[in-house]
Design brief:
Blueprint lengths: L1 E2 L4 E2 L4 E2 L4 E2 L4 E2 L4 E2 L4 E2 L4 E2 L3 E3 L4 E2 L4 E4 L12 E4 L4 E2 L4 E3 L7 E4 L4 E2 L4 E2 L4 E2 L4 E2 L4 E2 L4 E2 L4 E2 L4 E2 L4 E2 L4 E2 L4 E2 L7 E5 L2 E6 L1 H6 L4 H16 L4 H11 L2 H11 L17
Parallel strand pairs: 1-4, 2-5, 3-6, 4-7, 5-8, 6-9, 7-10, 8-11, 9-12, 10-13, 11-14, 12-15, 13-16, 14-17, 15-18, 16-19, 17-20, 18-21, 19-22, 20-23, 21-24, 22-25, 23-26, 25-27
Antiparallel strand pairs: 27-28
Helix pairs in contact: 3-4
Length: 263
């Protein structure tokens, strides 16, 4: 363990092996930091935060701060972060507004400078958020999603697995898995082709996703009938899309007329 002389580490903090705490960083009581994690200069790890192993928290980040919610009354809630995440300069992650609840970030995520994760967010594994992304409360982001710089998401929005959200987008409704969503307001543009290829989707799998997207977004069918058509495809990826849509409380970002399906 390597703690700089100017850093402040509270007696109740629990630090694993090979943890580095840089100049003027602050680690409060009731914090757990896993092996090999580095907390850089002027970063603040607030109480009730758990960081797994191998994370890097850059200068000026604040992890575990009280939620920006007028109804919050100082109850005990948490931030729980997995392993090997990169949390860049000025990122803010707020703890839950629910007694015993948690704001959760998975593992292997890359949160670029200025990202804000509000209370009760749930972020999966290998998620990338570019500079200045802001998620309101209770937003859920599934594994391998990519969110472009300056995009903002409304409360309770869900962003599906392997979705891509364009920079500066205003996300008011759920973003479909495997699909690129972009604009003001955000609308489904077509498949996240590059993301699917990088994730190792075979040509047959990409074709299955394209068929499902066409049924849902291009066929003009009523939603109930489109979902029945997805069920009839008998494909697990189509089933995943259908389940995502059925679980939506805010509705999902529909396609613009004349958009491309992707390739």
């Amino acid at each position: 363990m390597d703690v700089h002389p100017t850093a402040i580490v509270a007696p109740g903090a629990r630090l694993g092996r090979d943890v580095i705490v840089g100049p003027y960083a602050i680690v409060e009581d009731d914090v757990t930091i896993g092996d090999g994690t580095e907390i850089r200069a002027h970063a603040v790890i607030k109480r009730f935060t758990t960081l797994g192993a191998g994370n890097r928290v850059y200068e000026g980040a604040v992890v575990g701060g009280e939620p920006q919610d007028l109804s919050f009354k100082g109850l005990r809630s948490r931030v729980v972060i997995g392993d090997r995440n990169t949390i860049r300069e000025g990122v803010t992650i707020s703890r839950s507004t629910v007694e015993g609840g948690a704001t959760v970030v998975g593992s292997d995520c890359f949160l670029m400078a200025g990202v804000h994760l509000a209370h009760d967010n749930r972020v999966g594994d290998r998620v990338i958020m570019a500079n200045g992304v802001a998620l309101a409360g209770h937003v859920h982001v599934a594994d391998h999603a990519v969110i472009g710089g300056g995009a903002m998401a409304h409360q309770f929005v869900r962003i599906g697995r392997l979705a891509m959200v364009g920079g500066l987008s205003a996300v008011h409704q759920d973003c479909l898995p495997f699909v690129t969503t972009d604009g003001l307001p955000a609308r489904a543009l077509g498949l996240n082709v590059i993301g699917l290829r990088r994730a190792g989707f075979s040509p047959a799998q990409r074709s299955a996703v394209k068929r499902a997207f066409r049924v849902l977004a291009r066929s003009g069918l009523p939603l109930a009938e489109a979902l029945e058509r997805l069920d009839a495809l008998g494909d697990p990826l189509a089933d995943e899309i259908a389940a995502f849509v059925r679980g939506s409380k805010r509705g999902f970002a529909h396609s613009r007329r004349g958009g491309s399906d992707g390739a």
